[in-house]
Amino acid sequence: MRISMGKMVLWSGAALGAMVLAASTAQAQEAPTAATIKAADARAAATVKAMKPEEKTILTHGIMPMDLGMGNVVIPKDAVPGAGYIAGIDRLGVPALKETDASLGVSYVMGLRKDGATALPSGVLQAATWNPEILYNGGAMIGGEARAKGFNVLLAGGVNLMRDPRNGRTFEYLSEDPLLSGMLVGAAIRGIQSNHIISTIKHFALNGQETGRKYVDIKISEAAAKESDLLAFKIGIEQGQPLSVMCAYNRVGGQNACSNDFLLNKVLKKDWGWKGFVMSDWGAVPGVEAAINGLDQQSGAELDKGLFFADKLADKAKADPKWAARLDNMNQRVLTAIYAAGIDKFPAKGGEKIDFAAHAKVAEETAKQGIVLLKNEGGVLPLMKTAKSIAVIGGYADGGVLSGGGSSQVQGEGGAVYSIPLSGTGVWAGLIGQNYHRSSPLKAITAQAPQAKVTYRDGRYITDAVEKAKQAEVAVVFVTQFTTEGLDVPDLHLPQGQDELIAAVAAANPNTIVVLETGGPVVMPWLPKVKAVVEAWYPGARGGEAIASVLFGDTNPSGRLPITFPASTDQLPRPKLDGSDWVEPNFAGDPTSGSDILHADYDIEGSDVGYRWFARKGQKALFPFGYGLSYTSFQSSGLSVKGLTATFTVKNTGQRDGDEVAQLYLTTRNGEVKQRLVGFARVSLKAGESKPVSLTIDPRLLADWKNGLWTSPKGTYSFALGKDAETLGEKVSITLPAKSWKE
Ligand code: BGC
Description:
This protein is α/β, with parallel strands linked by helices. It has three domains: 32-341, Glycoside hydrolase, family 3, N-terminal domain (TIM Barrel, Alpha-Beta Barrel), CATH 3.20.20; 364-551, Rossmann fold; 626-741, Immunoglobulin-like. Helix content is 24%, strand content 22%. It has 15 helices and 31 strands. The strands form eight sheets. A six-stranded mixed beta sheet has the order 3-4-5-6-8-11. A six-stranded mixed beta sheet has the order 12-20-19-18-13-17, with helices on both faces. Strands 10-9-7-21 form a four-stranded mixed beta sheet, with no helix packed on it. A hairpin with a 2-residue loop joins strand 27 (704-706) and strand 28. Helix 1 (34-50) crosses helix 9. The longest helix has 21 residues, at 321-341. The protein binds beta-D-glucopyranose. Beta-D-glucopyranose is lined by residues 83, 101-102, 155, 202, 281-282, 407.
């Protein structure tokens, strides 16, 4: 199938292409386009004119509609327990906004709603599919569930670039590359907003670490920001047309991101001409002046030091025409989003039945495409279905698969199969439990190998695990790295002695296979000793089945790393995570305090995030960006680049059907190392089959941001086809004229 995706043309045979699964009664529609938004904006202007002065601060602030014992919040009758509630204006037919987290599905809010939802795999797994279509399908599915539960805003679209693999939220985000992240988040948002609901894109911007997240001040030049994190947001906005942007906790250039004239007024609203509304992150608003600096709505106001966007804002508007005009604009933006999504005309009533079995298939297909095969020595995988004995060890693999912690935590019906407290007490303790979805890898492996004696040991005792490993033909060791919002990991080792467990099992059984369930990259001191490594990330509601399908070859692995796996933290721009002395659950912190400041210098790598930094430094990763093995082999050849169009052919040169992710990189510009992913396409190929690929290169990826313009110098641009960012194949150099242009 040939699909045109904005600036990219790709061929895909992904099975779920036509299977867009929204909740049963969702009003599937085309997601809002720039034209829909323009029309909504005009309607919004008319409503603002009809508003009474006392109505003008209703849409500008909200609460958290759940009883967390945090004081006297009155929860309205029509609220649904979730992240946020913003009252509507009945007189004008403006509905209330009912908000839930997040990018991986409708969050469980500590079981407060007593229901379940379908958990998509983690964001980084979704990105490892390199498949916008699969993200669209996932978005349509979770948006449908949000709607079915009565929500009309999904706090999704996490797209912060992965500047540090130790970031506790790496699992929620997508990749380290602006093109890949932007294309994928845009597709997910289009899917979500096809349900007559609003999606956010978040956290704007440069929210690259959890350490000191409410007070860390990011230093980065405008040029570097424009060529990296802001470009990911820009592409995401172009592709997905999100109706809301959630600003971030951190500061940028000394200003809180939620009260940041440069980010919100200049870049987002003026330069990009974006018409939706900016909502704050929860507890990220320093004061009423945030309104003048571009914030349109104060979310979960009880988490801030004050209710700034109600009476205080009204008083300002009464006293000063500049504030009055700003307040009108805030209302206009919220209304534009409501009308463009069609929330008033197609209300999400809630209480709808969800087809969990059908939705689980979307999660499973995503997992199958995003699991990455990292090592397969001697073709030990796929395992034979006629295997006689398999030892499964560790990782709670008898019960389920791990998920990441924090506000994005989704649980199926009945909640987690295992829930292991991390630590701590108080209102946030429930947010940082290590929860396992009910999808047992052990059961799925047993089903794949019906004749095998499958034994399980939890791995707590190495001697016992080794004994079982010795008795089996194959040992499959499941290891986990729990990560969570609010807490970065201090290093990239597997925790709790799991490195030693793997080494001991590998010494006892020559056919040891490691399955990683990690939030992001880890180091692998045991790598030479094991035969195979499968990166399953946090694989979601049907992760166990997806893992077994890859292990036994029903699925030919096709995931590719969307983030560099460093050989050690010494290779990172900041070997020591800024402020790592402060590592502690970082839900705390005061965004208004002048003394609580931690500085992080992102100018070290600038826009050379991830593989670009490795190329600049000539460093070799443990596993590079774009890397992933298959049970077949592929060859890309015949590269030709004419202007901004690249064409080449991809061939399946092996014995099995499979998907290749073709990658095209800029490598040098006028002889200077400048590695940038400029195009990609997932291509499904039968054994022996070839297909042509055509990619249109976004000129921003060849350019620098200079003096307020995108600028590309005259000269020689060299491109290479890549198996991954380090394994480059055919190269072509072309000459391009000098060019500069506005956003
Ligand atoms: C997170 C957001 C989330 C919000 C509401 C914040 O702590 O940073 O991503 O949407 O809470 O739950």
